[in-house]
Amino acid sequence: MPTDTTTRAYDVIVIGAGPVGENVADRTTAAGLSTVLVESELAGGECSYWACEPSKALLRPALLRADAVHMPGLDPAVGNALDAKAVLAHRDRMAGDWKDDGQVEWIASAGIDFLRGHARLAGEREVTVEGPDGGTVRLRARHAVAVCTGSGPALPRLPGIEALRPWTNREATSAQQVPRRLAIVGAGVVGVEMATAWQALGSQVTLLARGERVLPRMERFAGELVTERLREAGAVVRFGVEVAAAERTPGGEVAITLSDGGELLADEILFATGRAPRSVDIGLDTVGLIPGDWLAADDTLTVAAVPGEWLYAVGDVNGRALYTHQGKYQARIAGAVIAARARGEQPAPGRWSPHRSTADHEAVPGVVFTDPEVASVGLTSDEALRTGRVVEVVDHDLGQLAGAHQYRPGYQGRARILLDPERQVVVGATFAGPGVAELLYSATVAIAGEVPVERLWHAVPAFPTISEVWLRLLETRSQS
Questions:
Q1: May I ask which residue range the UniProt record assigns to the signal sequence (predicted)?
Q2: What pLDDT shows up at residue 1?
């Protein structure tokens, strides 16, 4: 990419070609706005190569085996160890072998211009792109610049961590060998999913949780079920401990000293200790923002701290809801807002208008693909207590459902919904058990649609399915 002394003008510049950036660009292009998409790594982003796609490719065989070993009539061989080589090869295919040719072809087919290089803001509506060969291209946006750079791993401030060569989510989802012993620091979604996957692939996993439970942002019963199953699978789960020190030994092992004085040896160590915005080196200082900060955006995804309504922050980088699906939802909103403003219109008012990302506050769904699965949307009981929300809690044992036992004999799981007693609508739902991910959309519709409880009685679940839990929850509530 030679240095371009002229400035190329577009209606919209999108920085970051992950699923979020691609969706913003697709929406603005479809609205007739000339759009350029800039990416410094692989088109398709973190989700396609180092997160959602490869992690689920690692997890799916483990979950299928867990279901199969409980089902009478299946070959007992399904309970044997997974073929790690075959699973890793499948994971490679799902990650496109870390090549983005197909994504680049799609971008072109959608009529979007694509530049590979590192983009930096250079003032109001100005962006410079440094290409792989060191050349620079200057861009100017007539209407909008959308920052969709996502997030990256937040590593702890541990002395000598660089020399430790730790795994982050990227190494955990792209490793080509199964480590004999894997220490995982952090018990959130990444920590428990990777513990599930690598234990099933043959690693001896030790999961280290700083707090008293795994999945601390979800209902307590969900974490308890996941912990029980991890231990049954052979993983070691320890609570109330942190890494005080760690180093690579001359033999390549990781020697870990814990905060309680204990010691641990592992072949690899994965830090799953949170996420940070990818905003350090994107020129935020040129528009009066602090490099490295989350880009606070309002419900139209506009960065209100920058005058002129031209800068947007969409997806993980704004810190609103760090899920790919939520970022894509925001991208649809942002694209519609940009198109409206380009036509000289104001974004439509209203809590659930097509120009407001209201679901970021009311109905954020998430699935943890462990054994058992955990699916949650809206409030949890802990969050309601912390924020002073008055809710009615209704629980039901999923193991009492006929459909659950068709899914897996000896099924263990639990469901909880939270009701707003004044409005008589569901404001939160959590399910933990095999196959519960498929319950999540119905819960999300109930919350986003503010469906009255009396109307839910008329949504008849098919028999025998796990979705019968909706009827059982309503019956439990009416009998209490």
A1: none
A2: 60
pLDDT at residue 5, rounded to an integer: 67
Architecture of domain 161-273: 3-Layer(bba) Sandwich (3.50)
State whether residue 199 is helix, strand or coil. helix
Q: Look at residue 478 in the predicted model and tell me its pLDDT.
A: 87
Of 369, 117, 371, 385, the closest CA to residue 230 belongs to: 371
| CB-CB contact of 357 with 301 (8 Å) | yes
CATH topology of domain 7-44+100-152+277-359: FAD/NAD(P)-binding domain (3.50.50)
Residue 121 pLDDT: 98
pTM score, whole prediction: 0.95
- Residue 176's nearest CA partner among 248, 253, 92 is 92
Q: Are residues 328 and 344 in contact, defined by beta-carbon separation less than 8 angstroms? A: no
Binding-site residue positions for NAD(+): 186-193, 274
Say how many Å lie between the first and final Cα of the chain, rounded: 69
Residue numbering of the annotated binding site? 56, 149-151, 186-193, 274, 316
Q: What is the mean pLDDT of each run of 10 residues along the chain (480 residues)?
A: 79 98 98 98 97 97 90 80 95 97 97 98 98 95 98 94 96 98 98 98 98 97 98 97 96 96 97 97 98 97 98 98 97 98 96 95 96 97 96 97 90 97 97 96 97 96 95 90
Nearest by Cα to 136 from 123, 122, 150: 122
- Confirm or reject CATH 1.10.3470.10 for domain 372-479, answering yes or no: no
CB 370 within 8 A of CB 193: yes
* Best CA proximity match to 69, nearest among 421, 444, 410: 410
Tell me the C-alpha to C-alpha distance, in Å, between residue 88 and each of 54, 292, 312, 423: 9, 34, 38, 49
| CA trace torsion 277, 14, 301, 286 (10° rounding) | 70
Give the per-residue pLDDT at 6.
Answer: 80
Domains 7-44+100-152+277-359 and 161-273 belong to one CATH topology = yes
* pLDDT for position 2: 65
pLDDT of residue 479: 82
Detail the residues annotated as belonging to a binding site for FAD: 56, 149-151, 316
Cβ-based neighbours of 30, under 8 Å, separated by 6 or more: 335
